[in-house]
Write a structure and sequence with these properties.
The complex is a heterodimer of chains A (about 375) and B (about 300). Chain A is mainly β and about 375 residues long. Helices cover about 10% and strands about 55% of the residues of chain A. Chain B is α/β, with parallel strands linked by helices. The chains are: A mainly beta (about 375), B alpha/beta (about 300).
């Protein structure tokens, strides 16, 4: 083939291929079934005189959410987070509602444990996760690969029973539970019973009990420690939403107790526990305010961790915040917290004053938050 | 022996006191749709509405008890056009009821077949507030649209319960007849005010205004879902005064203070008018709801003349 002919063929291909590929794209690939896409961004400004951290704005987290029906049986959801620590496929799971009375979830997701443990960061009622949550279940709940079945029982009130089984993993910095036993039989399991009662048209009572247990490993060795590690919890929430002012008024009074420990010869031995209780009050369409008290035993928190990550103590913390929500899709929250730690090995009593300002934005689709 | 007789009597009494089971258990996200379902289903259906008439249908709390209420429903009637999109995505899957999941034969999008108004053209942006990208979802404010819904429900009920199909079709036809007859009365009542302007809290009177030839001058909220501020209210009041608009209409679940303040500044009156069945005790079904709206508006507009 002469050089001229080759040049002609190449030039012809150069100009015709994009047209061909465009035609094929139009005819074969449809974007009509694209998933619903949402994007959430959190920015935080924090002044904490007792911490060795610079003041000033920080990028806290962004999250891309994707959700779509796969087919008539399955729906697939993905929540991918971006933070200064990196990218994390925080949740990727499939659900099906094809089985009467049972909802089935498969993949990586937040286990159905307690109230706080199921919340995404942008939906926390207070900017800081409760100290006891961080020290028992994990700052953002228990997130592992697993399967959960949730049964809506035939009882006359709303009573759902969730059973779950997950992959075995050893504790991580954000995951205090040690489920790392390499035994084949080590399949961490969860149980949760959630009850809801309508006290009247406006007020509900929500009462739940949760438990999560698995076999542990001797830290850093990969060998089974022969113990069953577990976290147990109970939660109670009163919620008032006046139906005539559902977008203007309301309050939430909620408390949760969590304990982490091990079963030795069938007896549960507590290693770290605590509680938190808060009241949120909505006084207009745009304004919320809240106060929270909490206590955690044998727990670590920022001011301790910066001295020595292995230190634990008796932590008490009080928080108050005010939230401005100009629309459903943006939120500015100002929060102050005061934490005090006792019973530290060196008998010091570090305190943590902290003032935080968070900006929270959502664009695109955003699934409604659980009641 | 005496004990056995007593037991038998108790069982018999219980059996006689137990109401007959409906052929279809129907749930709706909105009380207007429940009212239409009752008319079409008649004695063959039991119907509940998840949203009460005095509750903002955009912001229904997705209480677990709502999920429980529809656990055994055969049919779920959604408003569609994303009006219930803020809570239904939790409630429907939470019911664990495969019969009413989206795509199942028991799930009804009642907006299908309804001529939709205010479909956005061009770019859809939340800079315009919490707009509904599929068009204005308050179509149930036009009585004629409820005839479309009735026909749709008759078809679904007939498919799911063929043995009573003739009744469903007859009931839907009777419902249309009642609407047509009542419509003449409502049109006559509001005819003197054709071309009159009103201000509504939210853009939920678009279909009503279109049907009865009213003009919508503006809204109490500056943009959908955005609460009014004093400056906006002052500007709107000044514009109302200049144009001679004197009637502000709001629903039981909206901020009455803002509506009254706007009306007072404009030298007019604020009227609480339900847009959903059950919004006021007099609005017992769709017919009495429109009776109430027609009289309330005629009275308010009559005062302004």
């Amino acid at each position: 083939m002469s050089h001229r002919l080759k040049l002609l063929v190449v030039t012809g291909l150069f100009f015709t291929l994009p047209a061909l590929s465009g035609a094929q794209t139009r005819s074969i690939i449809s974007n009509l079934a694209n998933p619903a896409i949402g994007f959430n961004a959190l920015f935080l400004e924090q002044a904490a005189p007792d911490l060795n951290q610079p003041y000033g704005p920080q990028f806290q987290e962004a999250e891309i959410s994707l959700i779509s029906a796969v087919d008539p049986t399955w729906t697939l959801t993905g929540n991918i987070t971006f933070s200064p620590d990196g990218v994390d496929p925080e949740e990727v799971y499939a659900t099906t509602d094809s089985i009467p009375d049972i909802s089935l979830k498969i993949g990586k997701f937040r286990a159905d444990f307690g109230k706080q443990g199921t919340l995404h960061t942008h939906a926390f009622p207070f900017l800081q996760a409760p100290v006891v949550s961080v020290n028992t279940l994990g700052e953002e709940g228990f997130k592992d690969v697993g399967v959960e079945a949730s049964w809506l029982t035939p009882l006359p009130w709303y009573a759902s029973l969730t059973l779950g089984a997950y992959g075995a993993e050893e504790g991580a910095p954000d995951q205090p539970l040690n489920f790392g036993s390499p035994d084949h039989a080590n399949i961490p399991v969860l149980g949760r019973l959630k009850n809801e009662f309508d006290l009247d048209d406006d007020t509900t009572l929500d009462l739940g009990f949760s438990g999560l247990a698995g076999a542990g490993a001797v830290t850093g060795t990969g060998r089974a420690d022969g113990l069953i590690h577990a976290v147990l919890g109970a939660d109670l929430t009163f919620r008032n939403v006046p139906l005539r002012q559902s977008n203007q008024r309301g309050w939430i009074l909620s408390a949760e107790y969590l304990t982490r420990g091990t079963f030795r010869e069938g007896v549960f031995q507590d290693e770290s526990d605590g509680w938190f209780a808060f009241l949120q009050y909505r006084w207009s369409q745009s304004w919320w305010t809240g106060i929270r008290a909490e206590e955690a035993f044998n727990a670590s928190t920022d001011v301790l961790a910066q001295a020595d990550p292995s230190l634990t103590g008796h932590v008490r913390r009080a928080s108050a915040n005010v939230t401005w929500t100009p629309s459903e899709f943006s939120q500015v929250r100002l929060e102050y917290s005061l934490a005090q730690v006792d019973q530290v090995a060196d008998a010091s009593r570090p305190m943590d004053h902290r003032l935080m300002l968070q900006f929270n934005y959502v664009i695109g689709f955003h699934p409604p938050h659980a009641y | 022996m005496k004990h056995k007789k007593l037991c038998f009597a108790a069982i018999l009494a219980l059996a006689l006191n137990t109401p007959a089971f409906a052929d279809l258990k129907v749930a709706a996200s909105l009380s207007d749709l429940a009212s239409v379902a009752e008319s079409v289903g008649g004695k063959h259906v039991s119907v509940i509405s998840l949203c009460k008439g005095y509750e903002d249908p955009h912001f229904v709390p997705a209480k677990p008890s709502l999920m429980k209420a529809i656990q055994n429903a055969d049919v779920f009637v959604s408003v569609g056009l994303e009006l219930d999109g803020g809570w239904l995505p939790l409630v429907i899957p939470g019911s664990r009821n495969p019969k009413i999941q989206v795509g199942a034969p028991g799930f009804v999008d009642a907006s299908e077949g309804v001529p939709v108004l205010e479909k956005p053209v061009g770019t859809v942006s939340r800079a315009e507030g919490d707009i509904h990208p599929l068009g204005n979802p308050h179509y149930y404010m036009d009585p004629k649209n409820l005839e479309v819904v009735a026909g749709h429900l008759a078809r679904v009920f007939s498919d799911l319960d063929p043995s009573n199909a003739a009744d469903y079709q007859a009931n839907a036809k009777a419902f249309d007849g009642k609407i047509e007859s009542a419509l003449k009365g409502w049109e006559k009542e509001l005819k003197p005010y054709a071309g009159s302007s009103i201000v509504t809290f939210h853009k939920n009177f678009v279909y009503f205004a279109d049907r009865f030839h009213l003009k919508l001058f503006g809204t109490v909220e500056p943009k959908p879902g955005i609460p009014p501020n004093p400056r906006y209210l002052a500007e709107t009041a000044a514009a109302m005064k200049k144009a001679g608009v004197k009637v502000v209409v709001y629903q039981p679940y909206y901020d009455a203070d803002a509506s009254r303040e706007l009306a007072a500044k404009a030298g007019g009156t604020a009227v609480e008018v339900p847009t959903e069945v059950g919004g006021v005790p007099q609005a017992k079904d769709v017919l009495s709801k429109f009776d109430f709206i027609g009289s309330a508006l005629a009275q308010a507009l009559g005062k302004g003349k």
